[in-house]
Write a structure and sequence with these properties.
CATH superfamily of the domain at 2-257: HUPs
Order of helices and strands: EEEHEHHHEEHEEHEHEEEHHEHHHHHHEE
Radius of gyration: 27 Å
Low-confidence stretches: none
Structural class: alpha/beta
Helix content: 40-55%
Shape: elongated
Number of helices: 15
Distance between the termini: 40 Å
Length: 470
């Protein structure tokens, strides 16, 4: 398997630190609001990477954090007149609601910054002890960027160029404009924690991720991932403070997803094109959003538009229709042994799985992987359409192959409510009885009721009456 490493700017063969195991860290949300569609892209992509590693037999330890103490969290709490933890608790709960809808599995660990304070204090103290950090006159603790000669190696910018654009903001007491805060001294009315060096306060954003990755995955991890916008300064600063504190490489592979635009414009609140996942899901469904995110290679820019969502919703419906058609045929078919022709056809269908794996092994190329799934569906549909007497054995094997590949992407896994299924089946049975009794008016009434009131279309086939949602 090859992954594009942002550090080397090349595709590299993935070689884990421990054979058969993967240690992954991905930056999670700052929990002061619902997350937006731009946030959803890395959450979905790196959930898929974790799933694919597991599909290929790896044991994965996946850590995605919650930034639950931050200027934005505190600001939201002050606006509502509550404590920061009330805001954090609310939006962590809302994160899981949206994540579940998007088919994102819970991480192995979801650490919160406030629950990792001992590890944060420890890494800051080590930086102070080694001279990589210093306590400013106002009590803030800053990282001495010049003590890390490799600073800028991830963003591929020389320190001199970065320094040219660096500024010291009002209230900062840095030795150098490039230095960044790892600890912020307490301000009136803000939450604060005691420290070994005597300055009550709270951690900086960058140090939180370094400490959580270190605590749950160790000093050196296999993969660190996040959005392209985090490359600098967040990930650059994580590298500097982690490698100075631990004296070793922080992460062997750095993966970053491309930007998401809205109607070909940069997403921003000021432009009024800032869409929350919750709102988009109400219009198109959560699974459509996941399908959309997987429709392009994760490193390419992706444009979010109503047209794109509608196209992906239609594509997803085609996959569901194919699954449902297969399952209907299986329920009506017989024959526990495939014919020689069917065995040959099934072997040919296996070529789509090979193409799927080749695409996913090539830096998680989900666009080509999805193409392999649609080609598989096309071939299955063509064969079963021409062979109405296909055996149950063949139909079941084709279904298993389709669901295996769709399952890796975590698509086409939803099921209708059993109560709805039972109600529809009962009405279809009544319609069949009406037709048998030549009561065609009643049969038509049931058909129209199902369509207009329940959104159910029915189709009479050689194997019986089949229904689907419209």
């Amino acid at each position: 398997m090859k992954l594009f490493n942002s550090m080397s700017r090349t595709k590299e063969e993935f070689v884990p630190i421990t054979p058969g195991e993967v240690k992954m860290y991905s930056c999670g949300p700052t929990v002061y609001n619902y997350f937006h569609v731009g946030n959803a892209r890395p959450f979905i992509i790196f959930d898929l990477l974790r799933r694919y590693f597991e599909y290929r037999g790896y044991k994965v330890t996946f850590v995605q954090n919650f930034t639950d103490i931050d200027d934005k969290v505190i600001g939201k709490a002050n606006d509502e007149g509550v404590t920061y933890d009330v805001i954090a608790e609310r939006y962590i709960k809302e994160y899981f609601t949206d994540a579940q809808g998007l088919g994102i599995a819970p991480a192995t660990f979801h650490p919160r910054a406030t629950d990792t304070m001992d590890a944060i204090l420890d890494i800051v103290q080590r930086l102070l002890d080694k001279g990589h950090a210093y306590i400013a006159a106002n009590g803030d603790v800053y990282f001495r960027t010049k003590t890390f000669p490799e600073y800028g190696k991830l963003s591929h910018q020389p320190l001199e160029d970065l320094q040219a654009g660096a500024r010291i903001s009002v209230g900062e007491l840095k030795e150098d404009p490039m230095d960044f805060a790892v600890w912020k001294a307490a301000k009136p009315g803000e939450p604060a924690w005691d420290t070994p060096w005597g300055t009550k306060g709270r951690p900086g954003w960058h140090i939180e991720c370094s400490a959580m990755a270190n605590k749950y995955l160790g000093a050196t991890i296999d993969i660190h991932s996040g959005g392209l916008d985090l490359t600098f300064p967040h990930h650059e600063n994580e590298i500097a403070q982690s490698e100075c504190a631990n004296g070793c490489t922080f992460a062997n592979y750095w993966l970053h997803n491309g930007f998401l635009t809205i109607d070909n414009q940069k997403m921003s609140k000021s432009a009024g094109n800032f869409f929350m996942v919750r709102d988009a899901a109400q219009a198109f469904g959560y699974e459509t959003i996941r399908m959309f995110m997987l429709s392009a290679h994760y490193r390419t820019p992706l444009n979010y538009s109503e047209e794109s969502l509608k196209m992906n919703k239609t594509s997803l419906e085609r996959l569901y229709e194919s699954r449902n058609n297969l399952e209907f045929r299986i329920s009506k078919a017989s024959g526990d042994t495939m014919t020689a022709e069917e065995s040959e056809k099934l072997a040919a269908l296996g070529g789509h799985k090979e193409r799927f794996i080749a695409a996913m092994d090539d830096d998680l190329n989900t666009a080509d992987a999805l193409s392999a799934v649609f080609e598989l569906v096309r071939d299955i549909n063509a064969y079963t359409g021409a062979h109405q007497d296909a055996t149950k054995a063949f139909l079941s094997a084709a279904h298993t192959l389709f669901m295996e590949l769709a399952g890796v992407l975590n698509l086409v896994q939803q099921r209708e409510d059993a109560g709805i299924d039972a109600e529809v089946e009962e009405l279809i049975a009544k319609r069949a009885a009406a037709k048998k009794n030549k009561d065609f008016a009643e049969a038509d009434r049931i058909r129209d009721y199902l369509l207009n009131e329940k959104g159910i279309a029915i189709k009479d086939t050689r194997q019986g009456t089949q229904w689907s949602r419209v």
